Amino acid sequence: MVARFPPADAPPPEPGSAVPISRRAMLRNMGRGAGAIVGGALLAGCELDRSGTGASPSAASEPITDWPAWWQRQPQFNRLNFANWPYYIDIAQGNRHPSLELFEQETGIKMHYFRTIDGNDTFMQEIEPYLGAGLPPFYDLIVMTNGIEVTKLINSGWLTPLDPLRMENFNRYASELVRDPPWDPGNTYTVAWQSGLTGIAYRPEAMEALGRRPRSIGDLFDPALEGRVGMMSDSLDLGSAGLLELGIDPATSTEADWLKAADRLREQRAAGLVRQYYAQSYLGALRSGEIWASQAWSGDVFQAQQLGSEGLRFVVPEEGAILWTDNLMITRNARHPVDAMNYIDFVYRPDVAAMIADWVWYISPVPAARRIIANRFEHPDVAQSPLVFPTADTLAPTGSLRHYRVFENDEAADTWTAIFGSIQFGL
């Protein structure tokens, strides 16, 4: 999921020296200009890749049965095309990325970085025609959230299995939270870029209305908050909330459970509790007081707190919070797979992970980055935040994490979408 604050259409930093600046300073100075996101259209990208390097489409499309032997044959081309979400990596003045510059200096690999992903579904529509045709898409390395699209990429054979011999830093430093995930057992195809929690955020007014601190998904269904509740428009988050409110684990839920949860969410809507179903604008509604409590992503709340909204609070519900992960993946038939593996190993170094986490403020997959942020970068507020480096105590009172439902096929995913996707429209 995108690092959701600031908005995706915010302009890039003003030109200047390459001295690193903090995320806080940048966000304070950003306006809502109409600056365009640095492009990532496939046709435009292909113009950059006329060097003739990389595997040919015909050779890359042949079935591969021995991936270890295949990886041994792959050369390094010293170039990499990386697609990510906007504002989801460290930035320095002049719109430069210190961690990417360090990668280029140490490896000799030229990085072409594209902030082109504005949604899992829309990006999937961009790359699917190439992947489905067995053609190499322009992007070697992509970042997408576990869910319907990632499951389809894996089930369709549209990802390159990662080379376990080039994952030394992952094996050494990766958090237990991101090892062996349910959507990709054994991290065969994916490793975490950053993660987050879907829980509840609230304002002081919610405490006053309820007579206590919000602590449960059920509080979003309480009549005391009539007209002041925000819910997610994303069908995975919305449906999961309905299931958790009924005491059902989304990961093991059935179609019959989905129908029950959808009925419960319709009751919530009919009672006038929900002010709006939000994509990314829920945070602004919380900060302004338009809503008092909402489904929320952990990193957003921490960002808002650092920017002055100190009254906002994030809580892990008693029913558990959904742990989602934005995954690094190598596309099938990628032209530069070894270069992509080198970068994956690079970002799991604690010093590099610290550079990224200190800027994006989501859950880092490398716990060892915490000490570097506290001591070398002197940002104890980031290092001590349970929303960047969660501990077992963070997940109290239940200590439980939940996961999205992993769909066994496209039909199951379509059924979920049909059931929950219509609720926000009153259907």
State Rg: 21 Å
Helix content: 25-40%
| SS-derived structural category | alpha/beta
Unreliable spans are 2-60
Number of helices: 18
Estimate the global geometry from the Cα principal axes: globular
Order of helices and strands: HHHHEHEHEHHEHEHHEHEHEEHHHHEH
What is the count of β-strands?
Answer: 10
Task: Give a quick account of the main beta sheet: strands, pairing sense, barrel closure.
Answer: 10 strands, mixed
**Mean pLDDT across every amino acid position:** 86
Percentage of β-strand residues: 5-15%
- For the terminal residues, how far apart are their CA atoms? 27 Å
Task: Describe what this molecule looks like in 3D.
The protein has 427 residues and is of the alpha/beta class. It contains 18 helices and ten strands. Strands 1, 2, 3, 4, 5, 6, 7, 8, 9 and 10 form a ten-stranded mixed β-sheet that branches. α5 (98-107) links the parallel β1 (79-84) and β2. The longest helix is centred in the middle third of the chain and has 16 residues, at 255-270. It is globular. It starts with 22 loop residues before the first helix and ends in a 6-residue tail after the last helix.
